[in-house]
Amino acid sequence: MKRAFLVILLVLLADQVLKVWVKLTFAYQDSITLAGDWAYLFFIENRGMAFGMEFGGGSGKLILTLLRIAAVFAIGYGLRRMVRQGARPWQVVSVALVFAGALGNIIDSTFYGLLFSASVDGVPATFLPAEGGYAPLFHGAVVDMFYFPLWEGRLPDWVPIWGGEHFEFFQPVFNVADAAITAGIALFILSHRKAKPEPVDSAEPATETAPTPMEAERPATS
User: Fold this and answer.
1) Which residues touch 141 (CB under 8 Å, ≥6 apart)?
2) Can 144 be counted among the known catalytic residues?
3) What predicted TM-score, i.e. pTM, was given to this entire model?
4) Which of 15, 121, 157, 178 does the annotation list as catalytic?
5) Per-residue pLDDT tens for 8-30?
């Protein structure tokens, strides 16, 4: 359980520190280059699901946040059972990553609307504004910032459906929590792969049988 707790703590700390710094430093859609023209910190906010996928509407946002909270409780319960049942360390770490990532995004969607002013073009947000936050409880937006447009161009005409169209890989903007969830799921799948059985030699070594008492007492003949 200590290993799981450490993983959760480190992911939450990295996720929230980076989000708060971006929220208070960047105006909306501001960006800085991390590496060339393929890696950026690009500040946007997401009211939907992971990697920029929208759910839509105020009621949809509330439902999504409540579903996230329920999912975190379920994952936490499952993680506790895994530890008690002696699950393998990598399995525990994988579920801890998913738990931490889900919890990190829940903090944004639950509390950020109360704690920060709205992020707009040209003006960074402020913490605990006098006029109040930009959204009620459970209606906050998740802060995203990692953007990796590794390739951008026109798809060949022979590609089905999308041939000839403009294409960008990788387009979604995400955060540390999203990355932790993805890594945790991948690690969980890999940790459940069965080891390849070792080949068994069908030839059994010959064994000598011990002589019976009658055979042992029988005199040797020439």
Assistant:
1) 45, 46, 47, 108, 109, 112, 113, 135
2) yes
3) 0.79
4) 178
5) 999 999 999 999 999 999 999 99
